[in-house]
Amino acid sequence: MSSQSIHKFSISFVYIFFGTLKLLERGAADTLVKETLYFLNPDLALFLVGLMEVCIGIFILVPRFEKIVSYIALAHLIGTISPFILVPGLCFQENSWIPNLTGQYIIKNVMIMSILIDIIRYKKPKVNQSEDISEDDQKMAA
Q1: What is the pLDDT of residues 32-69, one digit of tens each?
Q2: Which of 17, 68, 118, 133 lies 20 to 30 Å from 52, alpha-carbon distance?
Q3: C-alpha to C-alpha distances, 53 to 70, 134, 135, nearest whole angstrom
């Protein structure tokens, strides 16, 4: 199994797992989502984010969609950093810049972002055409 496949399966698992928790309203980040997306109905916000995360987790495994889904996931993860600005009280220990568990939860997304960038930048190696030609044909061509 290639590192690209491992990356995609890992991201898929994380997105489906946490998205499902949000859909079931059992996630540790439920309050964070609701307070960050304060301009939406809280239950709708949680549902939409959970649904989006599950869809990202599924479609990143479909080769036809992996690049576009990686861009969508990257945009989503950039959005997950917004609580540091919008609701910093949920991200840091009182009267400090030391992240609490919620802040640490957000910071780990940097690693996921780097994997997504790797997926976006990955180019499948071209097949060496000389491997497809028999030895006799190669001798004749020389």
Answers
A1: 999 999 999 999 999 999 999 999 999 999 999 999 99
A2: 118
A3: 12, 48, 50
